Each structure stands twice: as C-alpha cells, then as structure tokens.
Amino acid sequence: MTAGKRKTGLVFFPAFDWAISPTHPEREERLLYTQDQVFEEGLLDLGNIFEFKPGIATKEDVERVHICVPDVERVTTESHMISAGGAITAADKVMSGEVDNAFALVRPPGHHAMRIVHGARGFCNINIEAVMIEHIRRKYGRRRIAIVDTDCHHGDGTQDIFWHDPDTLFLSIHQDGRTLYPGSGFPEEFGGPNAVGMTVNIPLPPQTSEEGFLYVLDHLILPILDDFKPDLVINSAGQDNHYTDPITDMQFTAQGYARLNDRLSPDIAVLEGGYSVETALPYINVGIILAMAGLDYSQVREPDYDPERIRQSADTTRYIERLSEGILGLWKRREEQKQKIRRDSEFIRRRRSVYYDTDHISEEQTEEVRVCDDCGGLVTIDSTANYTTRIFAVVVPGGSCPACRRKGEEIYGSRSRGDGPYQHIYFQDRDRDLYLVK
Amino acid sequence: MILGIDVGGTHTDAVLLNGRFEVVASAKVLTNPENLIVSFREATSRILNGGDLKQLERIVLSTTMSTNAIVQNRVDRVGMILAGGPGLAPETLRINEDTRFISGYVSHRGLEAAGTDEREVRDAADSLKKKGIRHLGIVGKFSTRNPGLEQRIGDLVEGDFEHLSFGHRMSGNLNYPRRIATTYLNAAIWRVYNRFVEDILRFTAEIGTTAPVYILKADGGTSEISQSAKYPVGTILSGPAASIMGILSLTAGKEDAVALDIGGTTTDIALFADGVPLLEPFGVTIEGRKTLVRGLQTRSIGVAGDSRVRWEQGELRIGPEREGPAMAFGGPFPTPTDAMIVLGLTKIGDREKAVAAMDLLGGEANASPGETARIVFEKTCGLIADAVREILDEINNKPVYTIHEMLEGKIIEPKVLYVVGGPAEAMAPRLGELLGCRPGLPKHAEVANAVGAALARTTTEITLLADTEKKILTIVEEGIRQDIPGRFSRDDALFICREKLLERALKMGAREEDLIMEIIEDQEFNMVRGFYTTGKNIRIKAQIKPGLISPRKDGGTPS
C-alpha cells in the first residue's frame, strides 16, 4: 500500500442475461463468481467504495469514435451500449470529483474494436474505452490521456483508433503476437506519422510471471508516463494474463494485478478480457478494487497460489530486461523516428487486411493521413468487407487545424453516393461532434 | 380476536382487534424501561377482560427489547471464531478482543479450499473459556455456500459454551463482515432475549391464554416467539418495522407510496412499491454495525416538529437537534411547531408564545411573525420533500445486473403520501403538493404501531443453490446440504424451494391462508470449463413477503 484511502467508484454490470453463445467464453457466467467474491468480502461496505449504476451510451457517443457499417444499430446490441455506458459513468464520476478513481467492471469488452466496425472481432463490437475517452473530451475538454492496456491480447482496436492522435498515448503489454491472437503488437508499431511514439507495444514472452510484469511497469511504463505527463491514466484492465486463464499462456497473479494497479494508480480502469471466470477473476478483481481504494490487499491470493510453480525462467527475465531497454531507447528517439517515417510526403498511406474472427468477416482497408504538425491530421479510409460492402470515410480529428478541416470538407463534398463503388460515404468531425452519412 | 402490543421507548400501546380487524379497545401506558413485562401487563389488563381472553387467537408483540439491549450495551461477552482465509486483512474483521482467527476456509464455489486444524480450534475455544466467556459465534467466509466447516468447528467445541451462534444460519446472503457482525449480535443478545421470551410466556400462561404469541421482526413480519428465540438478532429494529406495518394496516394501499412518521426529533421515511414495504437490499444497520438482518428500509432525518430553528450566516437552519419542546409549550427555542401554530395550521399550545417565538426568529431577518412562520414552514416541508426525493432517486438508481432489469426495471413513482405523527395534519397537504402525491392521514394513527404488529403476517426467506457439476444442493438457512443427480433442473429447484419455504413458514407460525410466496431471485448459469458445459449453477431465493394477514373468510366473531 503506497497511498492512503481513496474514494473509488465501481460500475458493476455483469450482464447476467447476455452471451455471444452458450459456451462462448464471453457468456453469462463470466462475472458471476467475481460478484460473489466482491459481495462476500463486503467491499461495498468499507465506506470508500461506491457502486454506481451504468448509464446507457447513445448512438452519438459511438459515432464520435467509430464508423459503423452500415450503422450503429446494425452492429451493436443493448449490452454493448450498457457496457460503454458503464465506462462513461465511471469517467463522469471521476471527472466530476465524486470519486478519486473508478473501475468499470463491465462486459462485453471492446479493445479489439477498430475505428471501422463491420461486426465483432475478438469478442468486441465497439471500443468502450475509446467511446469513454471521446466522451470525456467532448464534455470536459481536450485532455492528454494515457491508456495502459494490460490485457493479455494486443489491444489492436484501441491502437487503430488512436494511431494518429498525438494527445493519446497507447501502451500495451501483452503476450507476444507470434504466439497469440490477434498476432500484432510489435515494438515497430509505434504510432502514425503525426503521432510517432504515441503507440508503444511491449510483447512479453509466454510464461512471464509477476516479476516480469512489474519489471516492465517500473522500468518502462512508468518512465514513459513520466515523460508524457498525461492528465488522465486509463487502464484497459484485461485479466487474462492469469496463470489459470484457459486461452492464454502467462503466469500473472491476483497479487500481481493488485500491485500493478497500486503502482500505476489509474484514474479509470475498464475491464477487458479475462476468461478464467472461477479461479482468477474473483481474486484479481478484489485485488484491483482494494488497490484502487488504497486499502490493504496483501492478503488477497488464489486458493491454489504457489509462487514456486509459476516462477518465470532466468531466460525470460533476461529477455524482458533487454526488451524494456530497447523499447525505452525507441521512445527516447521518437523524434528521429518521426522524420524517417514522414520524409516529405503530404499524405501517407497504409493498406491492411482486418479479420473479424467473431463474425467471420474479412476487411480490406486503405487509410490515408495528411501529414500535419498542427493536429492529428485528416484521415480518409476506403474499406471493403467480404469483397462486397465498400464504404469511404472522412475523419476530421479532434483539435483539427483549419487546413485539415478544409481538406476533409472538400473531399466529403466532392463525393456522392452512387457515383463510385461506395455503398455509403461517412463524414466524422470529432471537433464539431458531427457525423454525416450519404 | 387479536391482541397487538407495541412496547415503544416512551409508551406501550395495546389494541384489541375483532375478526374484521376493527379496533375494539386500545390503551396507552408509559413504558417501564427496567421491566418491560410490567408495561405489557398494565396495557393488557386495561383492554382485556375474561371473555376476550378465551376468544384470543393470537398475541403479537413489537418491542425495542433487542434494540435497547444493543444500544445500551446490556449484552453478553461473546467469543468469535473466524475462518476466512485470504482476502481482506483479518484485522479489519476483528469485532472485539475475543476474536480468534483460525485456518481453513471455503471458496465461492462452496469447496473447502483449506481444512481446519483441530488443535487450533481447541486452543481458541480453551482461551475463550478461560476468560469466562459462555457465548460463542462461529463464522466462516462463504459458509452460506457450504456450512460444513462452521458445523465441524461447532462439533469440536460442543458442550464448552452455553450457546453457539453459527454464521450460516443468519442469512442466505453473501457478505462476510456483515455475517460476522450479525452472528456476534445474535450471540450477544441471546441470553437476555431468551429470558424475555420466558417472561412473556410465563405471563401469558399466568393470565390464562393459550393463544400463540408472535414477535414482530425487523422485516415487518412475525415469528412465533419461541422460534424467534433461536435467532434473536432478527427482532432488532422491531419498532420502526411496527410503524411501517402500522401505516400499511391503516391504509391497505396497493400503490407506490411514501410514508412519513413526523415526530418531535426525527422524521422517518419509508416507501411502498405496489403497497409492499421495501426491504433493505443487504440488511439493516444498528448502532453503526451493518448486518445481514432482513429488515424494512427506513431513513431518519433530523427535521421534525420540535427541531430547533435558527438563522446561521443568513441561512435558516432547521434541526437536526431538538433542544426541548416548542416554545408554545414552554420550550427554549423556536421550532416548526411554533410556525404551524402561528399559521393556524394547528390549534395546539399557547399561540401567544408561538408568535413570540416567530418574532424572536424574525427579529434578525426583519420579517413579521407571520412571514417568518411561512418561511419556516416552507423550509421544513422542503427539507423533508428533498429527503424523500433523494431516497427515491437512490432506489430507482440502484445497480442492476441484467440487461432486462436495466431496460424494464420497476421505477417507483409514489402516488400517495401517508403521514402520521404530531404535525401530520398540519404538514400533509403541503408535503403532498411538493411531492406530487395525494396526501392521506390514516385513522387510529395514535395506536398504528400496535395495529401494525397485530396484523403483520409471518415472513421468511430461503436461498437454494444447486451445483449440478458438483451434484450438491444447499439451503443454508435450514442447514441443508444434500446430493442431487446431475440432471437436476431449475424446475426441480423451484419445487424444492417452494416446499421448504412453506415448511419453514409453518414452523415459524404462519397461517395457511397467508402463505403468499414470491420468487425473488431466479438465476441459472451454464458452467463451462474448457469449452464444454460441465453443469448448471442454479440460484433461487424465495420469500413470504411482508404484508398483512387476510381476514378470516367467515369474518370471525365480532365482539
């Protein structure tokens, strides 16, 4: 325990009546035992932990972040709107000063949902953190925000959404993409040309334990945060690095998660993945809540906890030390890196394929960003799903400069539906909170 | 005929009701705090004659006995043995110096994650016995999921203590710290409550009635008195429950409603959803201790008839303290009651003194007594209305855990406002306006509590958990843990739950015609391990909800 008692808000929404399918990991039972443990430990009676009912996110909240194809209603259900609404409620309680920090313990998760949404990928439809962040900026003003994604899977959706945003630092620690879905999240993915270094990926080897995670936190994440000086720190609190998780291969513990949260001290934590519903989640969540509330979590541990059995190898330790050093070096040289990427281009293009594993959709995307020193840069996206649905989107960033805005309006104005190959043309203006479709 | 008695802090009220539930006699005597039986005897003797005694069908009592024992600390020293395992730091759970922590605990699935050490249990028990402790509480984490560990500890110390209170018998709800507090209180008042029960039963035998005696519990329901002696903690806060049941009995409404009991010092607020009083979601709080005791939800605010009124930094302040009666009754400071007298809303007290009170108050703000009285009255009503809105807001924004409840959940929108207490008549119309409710003034309000107790039905609750992967069923309130087949279904669970609830209610003295059951929780989860369904986790909670007994079909025998 490093801090005194804090007021902690808890938005708990287990959605006991919603599942992707009856035996899917993202099913009704997922937070059942967490609820049991949190209630049995009596955390809500401790005097500084307050539970809030989630709000329901609106279509506008989602359209501030995503381009949903064909529209928001078609790619979401009520559960997604409540989950995102829960994250928004957590943020509002913190921003209004009602609590010092807050944890949105909600499902379904969101960090694999990218800017363009044709359907669900990695159990995610809409990105609940991103919806929350753009809500914060809309309501409380432009803020420098750092997202620390501690889910075992690379938060590729969050990375995509904030790829060009110089005011959002996205840090992800995850199991190495060569060994786990979604197969991305390498150090060379380092942010777009206007936001170089604002994406930092830390792929850890399988079997990394408490020691490794906390090493990365102390020697890499906290120093980078010190440099960036965010107004807000958000933890994408996935819980699947646990040694009992059925779909990953890491050795993290409830005690480790609690320490990580204690040292990171996020303003807002939002649950992401974590599918060891019975043997991990109940203990991890009690640990995180106690740590956030500044209470003694030293006695929290799993019934079968055995530090010897889950110790990482000496090789792993050495690897992680070298990796951390390398990435910190990259971070320090981010300006040089920026010049290299930009050269003298006016627009920079990236082409990629996105696979939606949950809904079995293949998407081909061409994205262009205007190189700009005054804002995140105008972005246009040409996206085709399953070789049939093709759309075009123009995105004017938050805090946009007049040149990017003018250019964006010009492009949107020059295109009309039916002219070309596109079913829909979208215009998203984060600054003016405008969303148009034709 | 039914005899209802409310032994309150100041007065003891008794009412006699006929078969149509009409008040045929009532009495009010001063409560003797040293000996409640004396007050009981005095009130009863005023309204009962030999003829009535023979026709007596039941006697129902509400009493501050348990509450007072706790508030005045007239309780026994209690030893506590706790088996909690990892989680919150044990020191935060220590309830007194006689708390012993032992190893062994149960997990959320009801599995014994670590066993007990017999030696450790014996040592703990011996050290407590040496101190002369006769009452012991035994509490384990998740003992509601598997009472086995608590029971085994009990077996090990059997005979060493006069009384053992087990955590799992207190409630089917989760919350280890509350379970500890509840078990502690139960053990602490066990002896004093059992003496009280003996006294009551001796008294009823003495006057020659064989009518069963019931006691009103915190949840506004009754229990046969010797049954209640096993779990005396259930009878704490019987007084506030009587007041809410009283309002219910005098109005018999079926709508969403607000009930206010405006006294001298405090105003108590309660809510009804479709005519049913709301229960505290987790349990009642007494003397700052949060418990698992099922109880009616009430909120007290320090704004009432005799609240002290003063100006403070240009703001009119009302309460929360009461420094004496209203100035119209010779009190030291202006009060809302004085304002109501000046406004002609009530004819009690000395009007001249009330005008003087408002003059005194208005002097600082340059207002006439009439204007000042208007301001004080408005502010008093406003504060009470604000408190009601705040509670409504809290209840309507209570967290829910399913999409269905999120979208379709019941919202309480009171249509009626019931007001009892001294200033009821003067304040009800304005409060009704402020809250957009039709004001109602129940008749016989002066003996409402005793009527409420007399007509309250027997309530109880049970929690069934079935784990078809482990093939085990638990009904913890009854100490049941039995094997079930793997194909056990939700329908089976509902059937057993209903049956056991009936048995339990009848044992507690319920009348057949009042067994109105309600399923309050009904959940079924597939348990999936490694992508295969391995069983079902079925959770059902059923209750007999608080309410009034129904009049007998033949209308009884009016006297």
Structural features, described:
The complex is a heterodimer of chains A (438) and B (559). Chain A is of the alpha/beta class. Chain A has two domains: 8-334, Arginase, Chain A, CATH 3.40.800.20; 345-437, no CATH class. Helices cover 32% and strands 21% of the residues of chain A. Chain A is globular, with a radius of gyration of 21 Å. Chain A starts with 7 loop residues before the first strand and ends with a strand. The relative contact order of chain A is 0.13. The mean pLDDT of chain A is 95. In chain B, the strands form seven sheets. Chain B has a six-stranded mixed β-sheet with strand order 3-2-1-4-11-12, with helices on both faces. In chain B, strands 13, 14, 15, 18, 21 and 22 form a six-stranded mixed β-sheet that branches. A five-stranded antiparallel β-sheet of chain B has the order 25-24-23-27-26, with helices on one face. Residues 554-559 of chain B have low confidence and may be disordered. Among the domains of chain B are: 256-431; 457-544, no CATH class. The longest helix of chain B has 32 residues, at 176-207. In chain B, helix 9 packs across helix 10 (351-363). Chain B is 34% helix and 26% strand. By secondary structure, chain B is an alpha/beta fold. Chain B starts with a strand and ends in a 15-residue tail after the last strand. The chains are: A alpha/beta (438), B alpha/beta (559). Chain A binds chain B through residues 12-18, 22-23, 25, 27-29, 32-33, 35-37, 39-42, 45, 51-54, 56, 78-79, 82, 246, 278, 282-283, 286, 290, 295-296, 298-303, and chain B through 85-90, 92, 107-109, 113-114, 141-142, 173-178, 282, 290, 397-404, 406-407, 523, 525-528, 530-533, 537.
